[in-house]
């Protein structure tokens, strides 16, 4: 299992594996062919309201993470999309693509950590 994150503005690399865009809104200045996506999963992105509230502010990141995780777990459609990502990442290389300028404080960082944790937990149960 390999899961990594990178900005959608970065070029595709040979070791990216399956490239999954995890934002709700398509980024400016990037064509779909440039992005070289395999899949776009909007349902794992934070809600518009939460994204705007957070605004990639470091001081809000911890609370953002809590609210975002709650969103993913409390909405059936989002939970199913997240579970599908976990399933995919458990068996193949996956690169989560995001558009945020802030490379340290964004939802893809959280998704990567949560997916890795969930895959580890699955492995412990078997």
Which features would summarize this protein structure in a list?
126 residues, alpha/beta, 5 helices, 4 strands, 48% helix, globular
Main structural class: alpha/beta
Low-confidence stretches: none
Count of the separate structural domains: 1
State the distance separating the first and last CA atoms. Answer: 16 Å
Proportion of beta-strand residues: 5-15%
- What oligomeric state do these chains adopt? single chain
Strands in their spatial order, largest beta sheet: 1-4-2-3
Shape estimate? globular
- Radius of gyration (Å): 14 Å
Q: Quick check: average pLDDT?
A: 93
Helical residue percent band: 40-55%
Total number of beta strands: 4
- Order of helices and strands, N to C? EEHEHHHEH
Largest sheet: 4 strands, parallel
List the total number of helices: 5
How is this fold's topology laid out?
Layout: E1 3-7, E2 18-21, H1 32-35, E3 39-40, H2 48-54, H3 61-74, H4 76-91, E4 94-98, H5 107-125
Parallel strand pairs: 1-4, 2-3, 2-4
InterPro entries: YeaO-like (IPR052552)
Pfam families: DUF488-N3i
In short:
Pfam families: DUF488-N3i. With 126 residues, the chain is of the alpha/beta class.
